[in-house]
């Protein structure tokens, strides 16, 4: 069952390099983190732009809003009524 072939830490070196953590543990500044962040932000940007454009096309409001809302500036479904 148990055995004596496991040596706890002494022969294997630093155990912290094998421990995963949300903050990165000892490697909290990985290589190319700025490049990876830029690539991720670019991907998010490329995903959100088409979604926003489709949202503008599909936006419909059965009643005029009581106060002005930002989407009135770019949505063509509102007309030219001043609020």
UniProtKB/TrEMBL annotation:
Keywords: Membrane, Transmembrane, Transmembrane helix. The chain crosses the membrane at residues 39-58. The lineage of its organism: Eukaryota, Viridiplantae, Streptophyta, Embryophyta, Tracheophyta. This is Transmembrane protein.
